[in-house]
Structure formats: C-alpha cells, structure tokens
Write a structure and sequence with these properties.
This protein is about 30% helix and about 30% strand. It is an alpha+beta fold. The chain has 2 domains: about 20-85 and about 215-280, no CATH class; about 90-205, Jelly Rolls. Strand 9 and strand 10 form a beta hairpin. The longest helix is centred in the C-terminal third of the chain and has 30 residues, at about 260-290.
Amino acid sequence: MKSYLLIIALGFSLTAGAQEASDERFVGPPIDVSSWKYQRALQFSQSGVVELDLDPLVFMHSGNGLDDVRIVRAGRQLPFVAVKPGADRSVEVSVAEVIDPKTPLLSKWDIKLPAPDFPATGLLFETGRPSFQYTLSVTEITETKAGNQEKPLGNGTWLRRPGEAASPFQLLLKTPPHSDTIRMTATDGSTPRLEITSARAMYPLVRLLFRVSNSEPVYLCYGNPQALNPRYDMQVSRRDFMTTAKIVATLGPEEKPSPHAAGINHVVGNFTWNLDSIKFKILGMVTDFDRTNQWHVLGLCVAVLLLVKILKRILFGRRS
C-alpha cells in the first residue's frame, strides 16, 4: 500500500513540476563562465521583466562587440532581448587647448576620455561665439611598427549664422578610439580662434530585457573573445517584453568569476536543464492528451502500468 501511495505522490510531483516548467520558459541552457573575464551582480527589486542598461565598462571589456555578453543565474543562461531605446548617452570630458606656433591658423584641443577604449560614438562641443564656421577633424596617435601615426576618427563642419541660437555641435566618429586622449583640430580661416566652453563624449545606449521568476542572484558576464553571439528564440518573448511593465536593474562592480564556483554552477545548470527537459516533455504529453481518443487512453494505461511496475521494482524490490 505504501508503494502505491509513494507512486501517486511522485505523479503529483511530476505534474506540479510540469506546470512549473511552463513558467520557466525564459530559462536557457547551462553555461560554464570560467572562460569569462568579468562578472557583475545585478540588483533589482522583484521578479518580472527586467531592463538593464549597459554602461561603458561593458563595451570596453567585452571580448567581441557584445557577442560574449551573457545573463547567468545558477549555471543557466537567461535569454534576453537587446534593444536600442533612444539616442546615445554622453558624459562630460575635459579639454585643453594646445598652443602650436607653427600652425597659427589651427586651433588644437586635446580631449581626455574617461578611459582607454572608451566606446565613443561622437563628441558634443559648445562655444559662446555668436557666428562662425570651422572645419573640425578628430584624430588619435597610434603606435605602429613604423612609429607613431595619426589616425583619423571623424570630421565635420561647424557653422553658426548671425542671430542663430546657440546649440551643441555633434561630431560623429567613424571608429571608436583606443587611446584615452584624442585631438580635435579646427581650421579657423578668417574667423577668430575657436573657444570651447564644454565637451561631452557620446556612447551607445543598449538595453537588455529579460525575465526572472524569483530572487536568486543574477550576473552579467562578459570578456570572452572566443564566445559567439547567442541565438535565443525570443520572437514571442520580445512582444511580451516590450509591452510589460519593466523592473529597472543596476550593475554592481566588476569581479573575476571563481573557477570553482563556475564549475559547481555548471554542474547544477546541467542537472536543472535536463530536469526541465523532462518536465517540458511531460507537460507536452499532458497538453496533447485527448481523452476521447481510445488509442491515447490505451497508451496512457499501458504507460502507467509499466511505470508502476518499474518504480515498484526499483524502490521496493529489495524488501520483497
């Protein structure tokens, strides 16, 4: 009698697990993050659809253009959608004029970026002059086998007509710089020398959307040049993510993933991945079951009898 009660309890457990599996469709395959250089804990207040804006550190330390970015919880990937919700953001940078007697018609300014490899997409300049026209070019010094060379990053024409309201000038960069110091040169012509009152460096705004079902710790991992772009099947989830109220997450400090913890989490991730696969198969069988189909009913009866016999032999064979 006890054996049948245990089997019935096991059946209820599997059914509940299958129902839980339907809520875990936003949990992806296992992952071993020991090959990733950086991980950062995510802070968020509750479960649901979470939005995370990537900061410049992620762009600077990503191994291959964000292809290596993963959201990880307990050795499993959390599938995400990457969106660009608006214009690039910007941060204030310092500028210092460079006086060069050899080029009196050129205004030269050194721009100090927050760090090397800062993901600058453009620059914003402001000046108090009422009307002018300058030709601007931005370069950086790169080291090559032939010595230091000046690499062009971007150029543009800054024009302000008489009576026109003052507004920042945006100069887009064709490629992001590697150095933390770049130079802007302005051809003055017959106008007074350029005076810059403020400067800002623009960087991309990329937002990740994903779903969490509980408060277990979640990490953002990046810094693996060998990692390929993950391909999650998120077409249905994308619509859900875009229309659902979001929970804002913030990033903690960078840290190195522990190889020991990564190995343990990978084992746990593999186990839960296989368990979820079984749950989904059971859920699919329950969903597709047709009580009016005699072959479905007959197949279910045979399967239950075989399962009872096998479980009884495994669990209680030694006692009989």
